[in-house]
Design brief:
The two termini are 13 Å apart. The model has no long low-confidence stretch (mean pLDDT 96). The protein has one domain: Rossmann fold (3-Layer(aba) Sandwich), CATH 3.40.50. Helix 3 crosses helix 4. 24% of the residues lie in helices and 30% in strands. By secondary structure, the chain is of the alpha/beta class. It is built from 5 helices and 11 strands, in the order E-H-E-H-E-H-E-H-E-E-E-E-E-E-E-H. The strands form 2 sheets. It has a 9-stranded mixed sheet, sandwiched between helices. A two-stranded antiparallel sheet has the order 5-8.
Length: 189
């Protein structure tokens, strides 16, 4: 696989720099970009893909919705990034039944190109203080758990994906595989 340029959109979550390092350690060019950067500034970087990092609140998510709506590149939303994608397309986000970070077993419902090689079950590190509670129209469920119905999703036509969990942390099994799958999507787009 050729070296791709992946921009990590900083939503001020504690794992943003870990995402950046995980992408770099997988031999991709990467840069952390403020979530208040203009769409034009993002496009000037000529990225092959975007990763929307986690973060504390929707209110601190800058203009990520504009990126999701108007940038025609593969997008992976992680935790808050996943929730931002859902909300941008008309889904709903609410409080989860389980709060802080924990080891969660997820079930792969649809082993698509993002989740290939991860199923049928895998253990991930996730917070469910907030979560997607209603899937947006034009999205399909990719994974679920005993505490969350929409652990992962994708747009039916566009290369837009969201996962509730953190593939960039060591506690997540097969996290590197998920990131490599995303890079392959970016390379083939």
């Amino acid at each position: 696989m050729r070296e791709l340029k992946i921009l990590v959109i900083n939503n001020y979550g504690q794992f943003c720099h870990l995402i950046h390092r995980a992408v770099r350690d997988l031999d991709m060019e990467t840069k952390i970009v403020a979530n208040t950067s203009s769409v034009e500034d993002i496009l000037d970087e000529e990225p092959d893909g975007l990763i929307l990092s986690g973060g504390p609140t929707m209110e601190r998510a800058g203009i990520c919705s504009e990126y999701i709506e108007s940038i025609d590149r593969p997008i992976l939303g992680i935790c808050l990034g996943h929730q931002l994608i859902a909300k941008t397309f008309g889904g709903e986000v609410g409080s989860g039944s389980s709060g802080g970070y924990a080891d969660i077993e997820i079930e792969i419902v649809d082993e698509d190109e993002l989740l290939k090689g991860l199923g049928p079950r895998t253990s991930v590190w996730a917070s469910h203080a907030d979560e997607v509670v209603k899937l947006p129209e034009d999205f399909i469920q990719l994974a679920k758990s005993s505490i969350c119905e929409f652990e992962a999703m994708r747009h039916v036509d566009r290369p837009i994906f969201g996962v509730q969990w953190h593939p960039e942390v060591a506690h997540t099994e097969k996290g590197e595989q998920l990131l490599m799958n995303f890079f392959e999507i970016c390379e083939n787009y």
